[in-house]
Amino acid sequence: METKPKSPSSQPDIETLATGEYKYGFETAVAYDSVRKGLNEDIIRELWEKKGEPDWMLEYRLKAYRHWSKLEKAQAEPKWANIKYGPIDYDEICYYSAPKKMPKLESLDQIDPEVRRTFERLGIPLEEQKLLSGVAVDAVFDSVSVATTFREKLADLGIIFCSMTDAIREHPDLVRSNLGSVVPHTDNFFASLNAAVFTDGSFAYIPKGVRCPMELSTYFRINARNTGQFERTLIIADEGASVSYLEGCTAPMRDENQLHAAVVELIAHDRATIKYSTIQNWYPGDKEGKGGIYNFVTKRGKCAGKGSKITWTQVETGAAITWKYPGCILQGDDSVGEFYSVAVVNNHQQADTGTKMIHLGKNTRSTIVSKGISAGVAQNSYRGLVRIAKQATGARNFSQCDSLLIGDRCGAHTFPYMEVKNTSSRIEHEASTSKIGEDQIFYCKQRGLSTEDAVNMIVNGFCKEVFRELPMEFAVEAQKLLGISLEGSVG
Amino acid sequence: MSGNNNDKSKIIPERKRTMLEVKNLHAGIEGNEILRGIDLKVGIGEVHAIMGPNGSGKSTLAQVLAGRESYPVSAGNVLYEGKDLLAMKPEDRAREGVFMAFQYPVEIPGVSNTYFLKAALNAVRKYRGLEELDAMEFLKLVKEKAKFVDLDEALLTRPVNQGFSGGEKKRNEIFQMAVLEPKLAILDETDSGLDIDALRAVADGINKLRSKENATIIVTHYQRLLNYIVPDYVHVLIDGRIVKSGTKELALELESKGYDWVKELADKVEMSA
What we know:
The complex is a heterodimer. Helix content of chain A is 23%, strand content 34%. Chain A is of the alpha/beta class. In chain A, helix 6 crosses helix 7. Chain B has helices at 2-11, 58-66, 90-95, 113-127, 135-148, 166-180, 196-209, 225-228, 248-257, 260-272; strands spanning 18-29, 32-43, 47-51, 73-80, 83-84, 98-101, 108-112, 159-160, 184-188, 215-220, 233-238, 241-246. In chain B, the strands form 3 sheets. Chain B has a 6-stranded mixed beta sheet with strand order 6-9-10-3-11-12, with helices on both faces. Chain B has a 4-stranded antiparallel beta sheet with strand order 2-1-4-5, with helices on one face. In chain B, helix 7 links the parallel strand 9 and strand 10. Residues 1-10 of chain B have low confidence and may be disordered. The interface between A and B is large, with 33 and 44 residues.
């Protein structure tokens, strides 16, 4: 056996490269108005009072809480996902936390300068006059929305875009008749919890025949310690309306895990289209798997009307654990559901994510493109359900699930479920698993590219079909994020 | 061993300025030594052919020069343009002008050929302190070079090597070489798997790129490529050593006699070593 000379041509090892810091991990020093830790009916009443909501909201919350509480006693937290984590102590979580110094905001200038600086550091401009990108932003800091831009301009078109708190106050009928209509408060453990304690989120309503002229966007930021974030988003596109919506999320680096249990409901009426894009970049925990966000999210859209269309695009790079299945209920005839997903896990991250396409209407179509990337010792699962009801004649589905492995200690899993109840429908499923080969990397390096650039290029090529679905500027952001998430994954 | 070196310098007089000098190079995989003391000098403007039977170490030599980590070097050194080549990372070797045309070009799904090459060229330019080319300048260059090596422009927008025929892959390697303009090109079995038309087309490309300023090492099993690309020197590699060096006539001799007669030479070298 020859001794291997210390050759400088050998690659820097994984450890040195893995120091790619989570760049959103700072904490903002602001004073908080919080409710005490734990969850019971009194706390829900207190939260409801603090938010000054109408009586029906209290009823809604209590109904959800009672349901959740039964589930909690029965230890009915969903156990079927391919993820592992210790027990969550729901009494140790604070369910409401809002930066103080924010009575009613009359203008953006009244935002706590610390909070404002936070969003600036995240690259999210809140000042409309400086906003050239044409994106209307709702910024949610811990439990409350701190700013929504472009409200007046959108209002001219009849578009409502505001925080959920404002929507409950200003458009109670619209909220009341739609809230929980896609994700009922009994849907699942985390959806019940959310219905009981959700504090804010975004609301959008696009009236008949209106195409929303700009991207609507919400940025979520968890800042406070021991606080869960439970946001609720509701988007309604009336007949012939269309809207593109994007959410982004970040959190400080902390040793303990934080719970994020959001619910998103989309409703598309006749010929309406909703495009919902997510760039999820919660703190993933450190290299040893300590800390990070538990991202337990329920997202569902209902194509209620004929020829309506809902597209989910998600780029999931953060969070210690991701558990989410953005789905579509294709109720209207000829409606279309699409799901495009990139899920990246590195180090000790775990993801169990996919979609549900429920075909109820005739000639409904769905497309699923899922790209899972695993590195380090991370585990990545695709879980998808395609259900075609008996009456959904002529329905079609195409699914493609590709997995990319980096290194030999990570895992990729695929759990596709298909139920077809008629004979005129067609389902196609394609799946592949590949590994970033030493060959590919060496080929790139031999042409002058660095290892990191090579991995970036290969991974971005792998995700191309999904990135193509993102609004332009976010596609660029997603590419960069992917690079950061995978930094140091190849030694 | 040094005697062998002296022999070679007798065979090859009037050297031009040396671009690459390989001295007593030993390398292999997991304790299995494949290269067992290679000595080779390549002067600027020269074309060298490395021939040898299967398993003699030809491709390993090409890979080691390009910096493949899976073939650790256990002894010897390599000077390239006066610099220690073995101390450089593979990407730095590329940036310094070493190009290898792969025997099996690698597919990169979802990455367009043009995008890949633009990133590569700009990485090289950046290293050399040159300004990066913008999209328009690059496109112009690429079209020019595609025409030069007769590459179907449709291949430019397709993912790197994906779904390319064997001939298209090899032609794409030569196209990349044309864009990157290396000082030292190492062609690893570029003729393998090509029909005669494709072979001619690839050889044409290589000949067009040949100049007084660069050098080429052609690694091949068969003599037929050398009908189209006439080498200045031919070396026979057997069992990890260069056992015979000569001019283009040596290739013809090999073609008619096979490798067996040089193998005997190899045994002699073995004994003297």
